Amino acid sequence: MTDIQIAKTITLKPITKIADKFGIDSNSIEMYGKYKAKIPLNYIDKKKADKSNLILVSAISPTPAGEGKTTMSIGLSEGLNRLKKKTTVVLREPSLGPVFGIKGGATGGGYSQVLPMEDINLHFTGDFSAIEKAHNLLAAIIDNNIQSKTNSLHIDPRTISWKRVVDINDRALRRVIVGLGGTTSGVPRETGFDITAASEIMAILCLAKSLIDLKTRLGNIFIGYTFNKKPIYARDLKAQGAMTALLKDAIKPNLVQTIEGNPAIIHGGPFANIAQGTNSVIATLMGMSHSEYTVTEAGFGFDLGAEKFFDIKCQSANINPKAVVLTTTIRALKYHGGADLKSLTVENLEALEKGIPNLEKHLENISKFHVAPIIAINKFVSDSDAEIELIMNYAKSKGIRIALANVWAKGGEGAIELAKQVIEVIEEDKSNFKPLYKWTSSIKDKIETIATEIYGAEHVDYTSKAKSQLNKITNLGLEHLPICIAKTQKSLSDNPKLLGRPKDFIITVREIEIASGAGFLIPITGDIMRMPGLPTHPSSEGIDIDEHGEITGLF
Fold first, then answer.
1. Which residue among the candidates 7, 38, 70, 71 is catalytic per the annotation?
2. Catalytic site residue from 408, 508, 515, 518
3. Among this protein's residues, is 396 annotated catalytic?
4. pTM: predicted TM-score of the whole model, two decimal places
5. Cα separation, 465 vs 523, whole angstroms
6. Number of folded domains in the chain?
7. What pLDDT shows up at residue 150?
């Protein structure tokens, strides 16, 4: 059966029952129908959260379809619950870009899913819509201020860095002209659209610790300069109050359930290749406040989401992960060993052997943060016994824990061995999390540390535009902010064609965006775009609905 067919066979429990199981008063949750709810922020208890065991699920460099981190995260949480460890999985919300694009939804797969699958993958509780509206409200206020003759801050339109956002892959919106149509229609200027997952509002929501912290961060958003070179922030436009009002419900994490009836929290949805790639601090702390074990994931490979999880989120929220589960697939290793995408279901020990250096590099990267790794082989039907044995033998030769996880086909039952390995790692208590760099280091030092240590680059080059922006950041007094590099997920380098474990390459920083509200800087490398495009045959072609409201084609 397909993922959506499997999801439809499950009899969902009322969300009030899930709230009771999670450990909060079911009368206090804010219900969105029978099976979804918002959790009030006062249920976060930092003292209790500090006692929870936080496990990060990451992955090796993926194939275009992804390697199943969400599926693995859900399956692991089910397995831990089966072993009587009270566990909550905390995930990001799906963006409609991938849902209608190439990757599909983000609710897991097979018998390792969060439900209700259709709702979560589509509009869910409206968080993305609220983020989009708050972002575009600021854009409208900026253009209105430029147009105004009596309330103008004299913003120089040429310096405005704030774009608009929409939660659809739409390459035609990357660069646009606004303000056409005459003097009553605004001042013409060039701008563009990013996808909502790359919005600074999304980043702010995911790093905010409270409603007031959210409002303060929104006020700190850098807009541009006046004609007199004075920097302008959202607070100068008095925009943060209205923006926060739009986000008053979106800041609350969402409670749903797994296929096996365990609590799951889903909140926030930044991509990891163009943003920080992790769910909200609030959601993670909520899960940790009510769970012995908390399983969370970070987008794409360890070089992207996990690095940002450690260096930005963990430092910002003062949380310490106890283990990393590195999701690994036979097909991805063969792909990085030179096998063609169309042949990944065929046994190929030679390509698999050649692809192992990619796995090796990600394991080395985990060790740089002093957190214990566990390799989880996400089993596919096409994996041969010989291929599985090759990876098992590699891990044993290196003294690294490894488990075969058949979570797609068996759910929690297929993750029992992995769950046991995780418990053993936690009980050994050998992890001693340490970030890769200090925020107080220079911007160039922070970028170079990530590029050389995590990606394996020889050195970093900067375009003239990026060099100019470095000076601007220093003049704004923002050089102390951490780094969130936008880079292709297809390679450890900034060139998507360099597969495996590339060496002797140069990372080129094309430009650097300022996310002063979120509290980080975004160096943009290679040809990465913060507004993706649709493939030739997008997933939307296979999605349909009948006269009874039954949706098909989601995955």
1. 71
2. 408
3. no
4. 0.95
5. 11
6. 3
7. 81
